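Customer escalation, tier 2.

The customer says the design service returned an amino acid string that "doesn't look like it belongs to this structure." They asked us to rerun it and document both sides in this ticket. The original structure tokens are below, unchanged.
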């Protein structure tokens, strides 16, 4: 039996990281629960104080095929390289210079959204080439 997958990000600023990933992947924010016109209305009804309203956020694939992304505030900062990371498939079906040009274009777009470029890996051997980046809180991702 298969299972649905959710990718959870521990972070300092769930709203900021959710904004980055919705823009990076073309995702949407999870809509408020039934009966509420907005998340602010829901949080008001539930009595969530203002200083706790950025404790979590979630993003969804509008097509319903990709995993839900969940962002939760944690007190500690990131201290080491991620053992798991997302590969953003920015150049499927492309090869060589055309592939790397598409990856460079996406790297520039994500940098404009707050990502940091780490390093470029050229095509060769078993690698088609990719670009390593970090999201606004330093989580690694690869443009593949």
């Amino acid at each position: 039996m298969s299972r649905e997958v959710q990718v959870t990000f521990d972070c300092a600023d769930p709203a900021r990281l959710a904004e980055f990933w919705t823009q990076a992947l073309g995702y949407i924010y999870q809509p408020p629960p039934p009966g509420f016109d907005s998340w602010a209305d829901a949080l008001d009804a539930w009595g969530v104080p203002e200083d706790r309203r950025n404790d979590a956020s979630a993003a969804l694939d509008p097509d319903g095929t990709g995993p839900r992304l969940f962002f939760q505030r944690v007190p500690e900062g990131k201290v080491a390289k991620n053992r798991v990371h997302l590969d953003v498939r920015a150049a499927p079906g492309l090869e060589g210079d055309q592939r790397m040009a598409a990856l460079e274009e996406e790297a520039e777009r994500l940098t404009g959204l707050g990502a940091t470029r780490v390093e470029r890996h050229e095509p060769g051997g078993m690698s088609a080439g990719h670009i390593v980046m970090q999201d606004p809180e330093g989580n690694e991702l690869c443009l593949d």
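Tier 2 assessment: The sequence is consistent with the input. The CA atoms of residues 30 and 59 lie 5 Å apart. The radius of gyration is 17 Å. Sent an explanation to the customer and offered a walkthrough call.
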